[in-house]
User: What shape does this take?
Amino acid sequence: MNRRAISLRGYVASISLAGASILLWCAITLEIRFIDTWIVPAVVFGVLFAISEIFPIRLPGRVDSGEWTMSATFGFALLLMVPYQAALIGIAAATLFGDLLAQPRKPRVRIAFNLGQITLAFALAGMVLVVARGSTAITAGSGASIGHLLLLLPAGFVMYGINILLVSLAISIDQSAPVVTVLRADFAPFDLATHALLLSFAPVFVVLWRSSPWLTGVLLVATLATYRAMHEAIASRHESRHDELSGLGNRRLLHERIGELRAAATTDRSFAVMVMDLDGFKAINDTFGHEVGDLLLVEVAERLKRQRTLDLVARTGGDEFVIVVRDHLAPEELRAAGSHLRSLVSAPYEIQEIPLQISASVGVAVHSGDEDALDVLASADTAMYFAKGEGSGVVIADLMHDRRGPGRLQLIPDLRQAIDADELRIEYQPQVSLLTGEVVGLEALLRWDHPRHGLVAPGRFIAAAEHTELLPALTRYVFERVLRDERALRLEGFELPLSVNVSSRDLLDSRLPRDLAELLHASGVRAERVTIEVTENALFAEPERVARVLDELAASGFGLSVDDFGTGYASLSRLRDHPFTEVKIDRSFVLAMRHNQAGAKILSSVIELAHALDMDVVAEGIERSDQLSELQRLGCSRGQGYLLSPPLPVSELVPLLARGAVDVSGADRQPGRSHLTVVADNVS
Ligand code: C2E
Ligand code: MG
Ligand code: MG
Assistant: This one.
């Protein structure tokens, strides 16, 4: 069937109309005499049906949040006890009554659809009984035969099946999703045994009612007790696997689900995990208070929950959501799905009359081989941080099939070993005074010669380490090595400030300042000699936590530098909120400078402002002499780049330092081609 050929409105109208026609036929053909004995049970079981519709056991959280009610039991009791038409009218009336009482604000079309859907489902279930036995009702005095009991199973199956099918079709039309996908999600929480148990109560009610209506009361009490026990069991199971605030799944449910899917996965039955993190949620929380923040999270959760094609939506942290997609989707389809979720979340909100808007970053990873279930999650998480860092919205993680070499996650075990075996090296790139050519500082850059993959770019393996416990170890490793090299250089007679890079994740680590201060103390190097480079985007992740760490580092005496300035969204005035001592202008600015006038203007105002704020300015990535002279003209005092010197191991650094100064005369010459560029060419 062509889904687009049918509008949701048309579909809902047809189902409602079909239900209404059935009910009309029932009303016309039903003959009622006031002495009919079935009138009382019809009313009693109709009321019980309505009551159970009003008090269902809700299973919030799963995308396809299910509901369990006893109404099917009473619906079947009606079918078994009163004329077919009367049963259908009773069921429809009870459904309508239940809907109006429990959800008075439910839109009329949905009430009409619900009515049509239930009428159709019970009408067809009743047909099963009619076809098999000539009548739905258990005739008075005959009692419920075993045949009746057995027939209830296919009839019940038809009833539940039609219900699920009709709803799934509506969702499939609404969300333009394949009906199979929706059906699969809708069937997932369907517990056959429990539903069979609930149905088996129906004939018992009928037989008891026939022998004495009072006995039905006794059974009702017993049923109620069972129902409550079930409710509690479900609720406690549910509680331990769901997030209280949003009703979505929690980390436990997520891990269980991914584990299940991992176990069932084959090459053509994989699954994908999306990690979605809200951008700037903290600011909303801080500005409008936690209550508004919480309500916003609930609203985001609601929007995600409505996406019935998703297998699971979980909330795993403050403003982090994880979505499991069970369909086998191509990367482009996954990217589109991620973008769709982003656009859902970023549509405007109104919370306590405050208009709000928020964006989100999404990382996607596909389980495509035999990697561990949790690796997929970690990989999606890494991708999300990339998306956030790049401001690119959706990033798909390259787990196994990475053109650029080994998948990031595959590097982790090797990296661990490399740290233990001291296989990492550090190179230093001189920072040069653009006025005198004097080397005024050294930036430490980490190098890893992988035994099989060759030189791995630091951006790559550091990104992999960022989501493991390896990162703190790596950062401390670099620090120790740098402090050791500083001492060695001092012994050779070169006293130079050193810059060390830390990752944005390091700045969320409250132990970092103390640990670095301890390492520094043990080495005897003065804090002023060490500058810590922080990328601009690190400031956005969790501004308050980051600010605290930065303040503590500054209090210990470290210099603080904003690396890659201009690639993110920080403004210089925003940098003033933090104790930065230096700005490193990203090489993209240096590149743009020559090609357009605006680039040069921006650069000159950044330099001016930074100087006004008492910060040093370093231009990165100077590769050509025309860039050098332009920077000199704009008043930039320091620079770094292949033209001046590539990053060098300590052994090669000493001769350069011994020469005293680098040539900054601006005369045309070839840049020092770095060891790294050669390898980078090979790798990509
Ligand atoms: P960064 O801190 O901005 O480092 C400058 C990068 O530019 C280095 O790349 C350097 O080799 C390269 N570079 C220097 N001059 C030029 C030039 O003239 N042209 C071009 N195109 N590139 C130039 P590298 O070593 O690959 O490092 C990449 C990034 O990895 C660094 O960017 C830094 O963010 C990170 N990184 C490096 N070492 C560490 C470390 O020990 N810890 C942490 N957390 N990050 C590190
Ligand atoms: Mg740097
Ligand atoms: Mg940089």
Observations:
- Residues 401 and 407 are 7 Å apart (CA to CA).
- The pocket of magnesium ion (ligand 3) is lined by residues 563-564, 584, 620 (CB under 6 Å).
